[in-house]
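agent: user wants the structure for Lipase-like C-terminal domain-containing protein from Glomus cerebriforme. delegating to structure tool.
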Amino acid sequence: MFSFRTKKSTPQQYNNNTSYQDDDEPYLAEVYGAMPVVDNSLLVESKEVSLNFEGKDRDTVVLVPGLLGLDRITLPGGKQWVIADNWSDVKDIVEDPFISSPSPLSSIHDRAVELYYQVKGGQVDYGLQHSYQFCHNQFGATYEGFMPRWNPDNPIVLIGKGYGATTALYLQHLLSTNFFGQHTSGRMVKAVICLSAPHRGSTLPYWLGLEAGSKCIVNPLSLLQLFLSFIHVVCYFACLDRLFSFHLNDKWNLSSRKGGGEQSIWSAISARSKFAYFGDNFLVDLSVEGARMRYAGEEKDKHLLDPDCVYINYITTGSSWRSKITGHYWPRLTWRNLPTALISTILGQYKMSPDVEQHVLRTSSSTFWENDGTLSVYSQQPPPHQRVQMNIAITEKLFDPVEHELTPGAWYNIYVENRSNTVLFDDEPFLATLPLVEQILEVNIVKRFGEYLSKNTDNFEYYYIILVEFLERQLCYLGSKLTIKSSGDSVADIEDIEYVTSTAKSFLMNVASDRIEKRTSDKAGEEWCRRVNTMELMNSPSKMLYYINNIQKLYATVENGVGSSQDLTSFKDDFPTNGLIPSGPMFIKARHKMTTEDYRTNVQQ
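agent: tool returned. relaying tokens verbatim.
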């Protein structure tokens, strides 16, 4: 069903070209704002793979939800209430995908195993050694299987969002190491597509209460401890467990003792269980330390990219802006950011101690400040030991690699500021697909208010940035005054106060866009966009005619003295950002050997 065009590279060749990061060595390349290093040796085209999401010969696609990816609640009697359609954007492009449902709170290992048996079929086997190490049941639920004949000749495409993306990658790691003992291979996965994946972990678990350096110890007086208590109480009562479907009782026995579990009501309220204590859960794998164990730990635990698999990594940016006063990041004023504004604010200024930065983060805390609302932009970059094919900052769907032929065995990093520019992940309003929300949005007053906000978003955001930076400056000024007074020195002159008020007026001259970090494609990414645009123009006569007319008009303005030759040069050099014709051989030939009149004649014929 699926075939590759050229000869495959041997595993020996792949392993020899892979470099690893020592567990105790600081990451010298992990500088704030720097993109992953591109291996130039991969720019040589060896083979190409294309993905097909529609039609008779379409690829088999499996969707993997992320952390707390609950889209429906099971009501008494078996009836389900849909909370939100988390895959509505993907289902518009992908025909008949399989939506998996691994435990929303389990570790990456357990979720990957559950995902395998949901696709292949059979009783879940977490592995004897793994189950013994973390003290939970070896066997879980039994699934019929979405694709019983899943093998290297019939691979699947995994699409994961957030925590689900790292789950998909770990499943391929288990397949490549034959964890399931059924002669599996990494070639059973044709492509892995990630959106906002926590490849390098997140600092949010530490703010919530995870003790840095402990990997699994939670502060008893923290929000994380409160959330763990909620999980245990839900699992303790059978009715609540059916309602939320955490799928933890199969292996952890968190139900009441009367229901066949191991929990008392007090142990449930205090979250005293093997699930919370042994570190085989979501909070460890989501942390920076848990992520590092997957790429800087033991050799057998490192995930190596398969030379026959395509890897696409969408890194979402542009959801936060950087203050010029403190360097902190704040959420932007958009509808999609409103539900995660508090988390974005926390991530944008969470500062850890220098000792933790040195031994746990191994970089500055500010590296993790820029975020997309729930996850740091830095966290979404692939692990250091994995190859990067190119970095592309897409501005329109045309340059999205998912619809083009791709070279397997390395990452395509796609920096996305607006998700509407992607093919698979359109930027839909949060919870807008719910029937109740749709009815509310259709109310005349709500509709007019929404239209007013959408028209004036730029103005609101402009004054919002001014206000935040002004308050930050005042707080910094007051802090410096208190420091001077506590040290016994004289208070600063009145000129300092005048400086603060005068600089506040200068904020009106600043532009909001200056605070937002902009990503650009690297050399390989620019060449990719240039090539894609070239092929698009060659295959579209109407676009070709449009751009030839633009060039001729610009030449005419230069000859008439209205423009300058420098404008013409910059006009061409901006391709493909402004959609201009490149100076490649094909276009030189077309431009000099065919006039506009000739082209119109040929089109009419």
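agent: one observation worth passing along. The chain has 24 helices and 13 strands.
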